[in-house]
Amino acid sequence: DSHIQYERVGADVTMKCGSMDWDAAVTWTANGTDIDESHLNGSYLILKNVDLSQSGQYSCYEGSSWHLKYQTSLRVGTPPKEPVLMCRSNNYPKGFYCSWHLPTPTYIPNTFNISVIHGTKDMVCEKDAVPKNRCHIRYLQLFSTVKYKVTLTVTNALGKNFTTLTFDEFAIVKPDPPESVVAKPVPNNPRRLEVSWQNPSSWPDPESFPLKFFLRYRPLILDQWQHVELSDGTSHTITDAYAGKEYIIQVAAKDNDIGTWSDWSVAVHATPWTEEPKHLTTEAQITETTSASTSSFMAPPTTKICDKGAMVGSGAVAVCWTAGLVMAAYSVLFI
Amino acid sequence: GDSWGIFTFLCAALCNLPALPALNCSEELGAGQSIQQTYDLTRYLEHQLRTLAGTYLNYLGPPFNEPDFNPPRLARAERVPSATVDLDLWRGLTDNARLAANYRAYSRLLCYLRVLDGQVGTAELRHRLAHFCASLQGLVLSIGGVMSSLGYPLPTGPAGPPAPSGAPVASNDFLKKMDDFWLLKELQTWLWRSAKDFNRLKKKVPPAVVTLRLEARGF
């Protein structure tokens, strides 16, 4: 018959070959592979200081007949560390949920047991199918002065551990982030961005339990965020955006009166409206006129030198330009 | 036995006193009180209470000023009106019932606070309590104003705590401190609840401009 055996990492394990005598001739295998006789003490298998890699199927066969005498599945693991528990109400006033996990894996199966006490009353936290380590509770009463005490116990074959959370109804209220955040440029407004969003769908009653919002935005090229708090409405127009720069925008939500801010929403990117660039030749003409006027302003003496050179070719013009600049520099010095 | 009688008398006396200065205050509040302003008042009070409660609990000393302090609710503490209510019941409250519940609760809480005021040791605490009581009275008047403007009658009945149910007044110092602890807790919870009550009222009832006619009400 088959067994399962749980052992701690680092422990010394002795496996007996079922009902066989100590001095019987046996062969042990680990996952089908023969185990060297050095690990045997008579018919007992000795594993010292076991580690995770030694988990597996161990079988014991009678020496000559090769009959299977004993089989066990060895699972090496650890007793559970103190679990991490979190409770939150993202659907106030309907209720709250608690979720948990182990800080380090135990490598063997664990069972979790959660208890919720409200004053003297025991409440049932209904386990969610998905995700697994989660349960939810419906509030029977609102505006309670008595705290809730949640205890999570985790047990496995090697030990148990637990943790407790005590909190007021109001303290754990934290909505989910706002949904469907959209940011759009505003036509003909190079410094504006229109942002809109929706209440998180998990918040059941925004009419009686309105949310307020916090918007943050910055151009991608800067690290500093700008913030706006909004007590009403699900849209806002940014009016001080830097023209032509791409922005990153996020929104968070909070119950108007109680609890804490949600996490930031998914970030959206947007760039304010910019004017279409004009026809290319016009631009070139503007640059030419500017440089021509500059040269005439800068160095009147050089025109004399260059006048002859200008007719010769572009190379001469380049030399001329450099000479002109040098002259201009000297003339500035004298001024 | 006797101490309970004295307590009730004290409360009745202290609660009827402010009727006179209230007349002056109400004339100032008379115009433009709306549900929004009442809501704002509850938020202001909640903020004030945080400081007051911190100071008071420190005055009471441990374990009352420990953040984890989570004592069981003793039956005696039921004298203080509780904000706790069944969810569906709360949802289904009529505007009148909702306002009346707030009015009654704060009237009684104010009364208890005033008794407290007469007993505390330090001048700082007395000053804070007095300030808070004044603001709380403003809230009661504000709620009353909203009710009047909507044509609802102000809840009648004793302004003080109800007749003794047989539970003795705390002769024990520790039990007295427990009572104080729960009083502050209930007050805090009521202020949180009121924010939600007035949110609901805001949506259902347009902001009301109130002209108080306190003389007619025999205040």
From TrEMBL, chain A:
Gene3D superfamilies: Immunoglobulins
Keyword Aminoacyl-tRNA synthetase part of the UniProt annotation: no
Subcellular location: Cell membrane
Transmembrane segments: 310-333
UniProt keyword Glycoprotein present: yes
Major place of residence: membrane
Membrane topology, from the record: Lipid-anchor; GPI-anchor
Gene Ontology MF, one: interleukin-11 receptor activity
Keywords: Cell membrane, Disulfide bond, Glycoprotein, GPI-anchor, Immunoglobulin domain, Lipoprotein, Membrane, Receptor, Repeat, Signal, Transmembrane, Transmembrane helix
Domain Ig-like: from-to ranges: 10-60
Any one GO BP annotation for this protein: positive regulation of cell population proliferation
PROSITE patterns referenced in this protein's UniProt entry, alphabetically: FN3, HEMATOPO_REC_L_F3, IG_LIKE
GO cellular component entries: ciliary neurotrophic factor receptor complex; CNTFR-CLCF1 complex; external side of plasma membrane
Recorded coiled-coil stretches: none
Alphabetized InterPro entries for the sequence: FN3_dom, FN3_sf, Hematopoietin_rcpt_L_F3_CS, Ig-like_dom, Ig-like_dom_sf, Ig-like_fold, Ig_sub2, Type-I_Cytokine_Rcpt
Domain of life: Eukaryota
Record domain Fibronectin type-III: where: 177-277
PANTHER family: CILIARY NEUROTROPHIC FACTOR RECEPTOR SUBUNIT ALPHA, CYTOKINE RECEPTOR
Family recorded in the similarity comment: Belongs to the type I cytokine receptor family. Type 3 subfamily.
Name of this protein: Ciliary neurotrophic factor receptor subunit alpha
Record organism: Pomatostomus ruficeps (Chestnut-crowned babbler)
UniProtKB/TrEMBL annotation, chain B:
Major subcellular location class: secreted
Keyword presence, Glycoprotein: yes
GO cellular component: CNTFR-CLCF1 complex; CRLF-CLCF1 complex; extracellular space
Tagged with keyword Glycoprotein: yes
Example GO biological process: positive regulation of B cell proliferation
InterPro entries per the UniProt record, alphabetical: 4_helix_cytokine-like_core, PRF/CT
Keyword tags: Cytokine, Glycoprotein, Secreted, Signal
Gene Ontology molecular-function annotations: cytokine activity
Localization of this protein: Secreted
Signal peptide coordinates: 1-22
Pfam families documented for this protein: PRF
Its biological purpose: In complex with CRLF1, forms a heterodimeric neurotropic cytokine that plays a crucial role during neuronal development. Also stimulates B-cells. Binds to and activates the ILST/gp130 receptor.
Family under the similarity heading: Belongs to the IL-6 superfamily.
Subunit architecture: Forms a heteromeric complex with cardiotrophin-like cytokine CRLF1/CLF-1; the CRLF1-CLCF1 complex is a ligand for the ciliary neurotrophic factor receptor/CNTFR. The CRLF1-CLCF1 heterodimer binds SORL1 (via N-terminal ectodomain); within this complex, the interaction is mediated predominantly by the CRLF1 moiety. The tripartite signaling complex formed by CRLF1, CLCF1 and CNTFR also binds SORL1.
Name the record gives this protein: Cardiotrophin-like cytokine factor 1
Name of the gene this protein is made from: Clcf1
